[in-house]
Design a protein that fits this description.
By secondary structure, the chain is an alpha+beta fold. Helices cover about 25% and strands about 50% of the residues. It has helices at about 70-80, 95-110; strands at about 1-10, 10-20, 25-30, 35-50, 50-60, 85-90. Strands 1-2-3-6-4-5 form a 6-stranded mixed sheet, covered by helices on one side. β4 and β5 form a beta hairpin.
Amino acid sequence: AVRKAQISVSGKMTDLVLTGYADRVFVIATQNGKMGTLISATGDSKSVGGVVNETYSIKVLMGKRNDQIAELLARSLVAKIGKNVLLGLNIKGLDAKGAKELMQKIIAHKVW
């Protein structure tokens, strides 16, 4: 399934495209029509002695490296959605508040 929407993130119009696949969700959030940084985020849970340990792997496939807000957004999406995420992000000046707002709007437009 594919869902497209125009949303506001930190007061700026943002195009949002979500595509659901069997094993992951592809999310593009852009303010200029370009994909920008592409991040792969995966999650894995293992039970050891009755305790469940969640492990996340974040890889920047292309674009801006060491963007902690973008990486945190990708990791948080995996935790909320419960599926691996491929995130294309091109939002200028994204801060923690904007990332939280974006995450809520992505969850509201679910395709998984």
